[in-house]
């Protein structure tokens, strides 16, 4: 028997404490990913001459996945609010905020360590949750924009990264909504 991860996430997202854990894990992973990139916003492992990748291929894939995961959580929350699974959205959000560990900011300098994956979700926070925690797009962009500014990432690359994440965030919102309406 194999696990159906999307169904498991959909089930867990009904519970605000589980939602907070999943959301924290994705936001921690975003900080982890960003702090290991080059100043150009690329993959430090890229080697010129690789016919299957560019300096940003794997970085972009990671950012797409993270934006998709966060967008999926937000779409599930919205769908559950619409269908009555979440009866009091404000109460649900308050519990998520209460159980969120905080804000995850990437280091301002490039890190080269590779902690075990389980340790990424346990990373220390940079402070309490800020702003509307349930605005996944704003949460992602605040982290990305600050990282790009601190690291001196070229504006063109930072803009491309932001657009890529936005595309996949919105795509997840749409895809989950379509799947749930079937």
Question: How does this model look, in words?
Answer:
The protein has 182 residues and is an all-alpha fold. It contains seven helices and no strands. The mean pLDDT is 92.
List the helices and strands and how they pair.
Layout: H1 5-12, H2 16-34, H3 57-83, H4 89-99, H5 117-121, H6 136-151, H7 155-181
Helix pairs in contact: 2-3, 2-4, 2-6, 3-7, 6-7
Give the fraction of residues assigned to helices: 55-70%
Judged by helices, strands and strand pairing, the structural class is mainly alpha
Q: Which stretches of 5+ consecutive residues score pLDDT under 50?
A: none
Sheet of most strands: none
Distance between the termini: 25 Å
Mean pLDDT: 92
Element-level helix/strand string: HHHHHHH
| SS field, number of helical segments | 7
What coarse outline follows from CA principal-axis ratios?
Answer: globular
Tell me the β content. Answer: under 5%
User: Would you count the extended β strands for me?
Assistant: 0
């Amino acid at each position: 028997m194999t696990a159906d991860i999307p169904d498991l996430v959909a089930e867990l997202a009904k519970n605000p404490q589980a939602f907070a854990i999943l959301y924290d894990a994705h936001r921690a992973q975003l900080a982890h990913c960003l702090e290991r990139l080059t100043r150009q916003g690329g993959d430090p492992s890229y080697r010129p001459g690789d016919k299957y990748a560019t300096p940003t291929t794997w970085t972009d894939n990671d950012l797409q996945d993270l934006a998709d995961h966060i967008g999926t959580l937000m779409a599930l929350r919205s769908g559950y609010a619409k269908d009555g699974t979440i009866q009091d959205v404000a109460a649900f959000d308050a519990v998520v905020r209460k159980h969120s560990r905080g804000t995850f900011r990437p280091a301002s300098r490039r890190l080269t360590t590779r902690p075990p994956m389980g340790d990424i979700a346990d990373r220390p926070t940079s402070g309490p949750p800020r702003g509307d925690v349930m605005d996944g797009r704003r949460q992602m962009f605040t982290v990305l924009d600050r990282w790009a500014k601190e690291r001196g990432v070229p504006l063109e690359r930072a803009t491309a990264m932001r657009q890529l994440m936005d595309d996949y965030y919105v795509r997840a919102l749409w895809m989950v909504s379509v799947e749930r309406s079937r």
